[in-house]
From TrEMBL:
The keyword Transport applies. This is Solute carrier family 2, facilitated glucose transporter member 5. One of its GO terms (biological process) is fructose import across plasma membrane. It is found in: Cell membrane, Sarcolemma; Cell membrane. Residues 17-450 form the Major facilitator superfamily (MFS) profile domain. Belongs to the major facilitator superfamily. Sugar transporter (TC 2.A.1.1) family. Glucose transporter subfamily.
Length: 493
């Protein structure tokens, strides 16, 4: 769809989003939440296996260490996936990388499904590492693919597919873990192996859709292949010679490129904040709040599913609002509302025993915080990572952003229990500071990117932050002249 005035994705574009996301960020969300339900059954399996091997029971400390290793291997794999995702997207193409990435998910499903019958809990560790690699590559490459097949007018709405399918994956994992489905103790190997289903779906559907035309033209110099892409049917000029010297940047080259300094700083700040903004703390306290509110223990998992549904709904809402309100308004507003919720949640937790009303107010704060996150930071962060960089820097930018995100994910998982233990309900004052600082940074530094080409965004970013005039000259020589020479490439580039 090359009509920029259209604000509604065509059916083929929507299907392409679904095909890319079902085996991409859906897997990330699904494997984050699906591991929660079988916590006790897997620990029982580890204990039983240990006893059969060594004829003695496992100590509580070793059991906790093994379980933590199984869970945290996902973040380590995600870091590895983020590091290789950008390189693979250049070597194999965006679509080719997404298809190849399913190998990790299928191997993980096989290993985790066989772990019980084989009596090897080590297979769970390897399987979780592979699911992490799959998620890391998906988070890196899928937004690239969506941004590069989308017309400028609906690039934000299509990019929200990343957030929608993450939250959809979280919700699906929560639902699949209910006792009515696969949450019973004897079903946990099947539950963990269901990660193969999204992989099979993507392998069946995604091959019917084209490779990114931008990748074919710029990275591969394949103008014929590019013309077959839906976005490039109007371009009738042979560009191959023009792009022979246009190579993708390496991650370390971004750190030395002064023209990209503020863009790089921005995506690093946003990706750190996405993990350190307090969302994990909210989910940590959700069970306690629900229990204080009088919800029976056996019903709390259903209330938790409600939080997943809440985040999924806000991601869909953000997708509908992003082209109307813009990226900057949504993400700044989201962090502002999250900061307010941090204050209110601290107060309601502090006075939890003062009145029977306060537990219910705390419950409102839980849902309000999740709504605020889904409305802005949850979806817009990935889109900005795409839009702040031009074609040659984008894969490397995603490698850096993904690495920072996964390292922050791992770090908050390690230090968060100590923050809660030390500060208790006052831990949200720490997250309040994070939300306020990030909101202020976005207001002062990040320009609005709605309805702008990648080149226009880059130029405005440099202008708004008072970059040197010499930087303009470099960009104009390497990219701006192409815009003048090929007016039809403006939307594409």
């Amino acid at each position: 769809n090359n009509n920029n005035s259209s604000r509604v994705p065509s059916k083929p574009l929507l299907l392409a989003v679904c095909a890319a996301c079902i085996g991409g960020t859906f897997q990330y969300g699904y494997n984050i939440s699906v591991i929660n339900a079988p916590t006790q059954p897997v620990q029982n399996f580890i204990n039983q296996t240990w006893r059969e091997r060594y004829q003695t029971g496992i100590s509580e400390d070793v059991l906790t260490l093994l379980w933590s290793t199984i869970v945290s291997m996902f973040t380590l794999g995600g870091f590895v996936g983020a590091m290789i995702g950008g390189t693979l997207s250049v070597k194999l193409g965006r679509k080719g990388t997404l298809l190849t990435n399913n190998i990790f998910a299928l191997l993980a499903a096989l290993l985790m499904g066989l772990s019980h019958s084989a009596g090897l809990f080590e297979l769970l560790i390897i399987g979780r590492l592979l699911t992490g690699i799959n998620a890391g590559i998906g988070l890196c490459v899928q937004p690239l693919y969506l941004a590069e097949i989308a017309p400028t007018a609906i690039r934000g709405a299509m990019g929200m597919g990343t957030s929608v399918f993450i939250t959809g994956g979280i919700l699906t994992g929560q639902v699949m873990g209910l006792k009515e489905l696969l949450g019973r103790e004897e079903h946990w190997p099947i539950l963990l192996s269901t990660t193969c289903i999204p992989a099979f779906l993507q392998l069946l559907i995604l091959p019917w859709f084209p490779e990114s035309p931008r990748y074919l033209l710029i990275d591969k110099g394949d103008d014929e292949g590019c013309k077959k892409g839906k976005m490039m049917t109007q371009l009738l000029f042979p560009f191959q010679n023009r792009w022979d010297s246009y190579f993708a940047k390496k991650p370390w080259e971004l750190f030395t490129d002064r023209s990209l300094r503020w863009q790089l700083l921005t995506v690093v700040v946003l990706n750190i904040a996405q993990q350190l903004n307090g969302l994990n703390a909210i989910y940590f306290y959700a069970g306690y709040v629900f229990k204080q509110s009088g919800i029976p223990d056996d019903k709390i998992p259903y209330a938790t599913v409600g939080t997943g549904a809440c985040e999924c709904i806000t991601a869909l809402t953000c997708g509908m609002l992003i082209e109307c309100l813009g990226r900057k308004v949504l993400i700044t507003g989201g962090y502002t509302l999250m900061g307010i919720c941090c204050i209110l949640f601290t107060l309601t937790l502090t006075f939890q025993e003062a009145s029977p009303v306060f537990p219910y107010l705390s419950m409102v704060c839980v849902f309000a915080f999740i709504l605020s996150f889904g409305l802005g930071p949850g979806g817009v962060t990935n889109i900005l990572t795409t839009e702040l960089f031009t074609q040659n820097a984008r894969p490397a930018a995603y490698m850096i952003a993904g690495s920072v995100n996964w390292l922050s994910f791992f770090s908050i998982g390690m230090i968060f229990p100590f923050i809660v233990l030390g500060l208790k309900q006052y831990c949200f004052l720490v997250f309040l500071v994070v939300c306020c600082l990030v909101g202020a940074y976005i207001c002062l530094v990040v320009p609005e990117t709605k309805n702008k080409t990648f080149l226009e965004i880059q130029n405005e970013f440099l202008s708004s932050n008072k970059r040197k005039v010499g930087m303009w000259h470099v960009i104009w020589r390497t990219e701006g002249s192409l815009k003048c020479s090929f007016a039809g490439l403006n939307e594409f580039y």
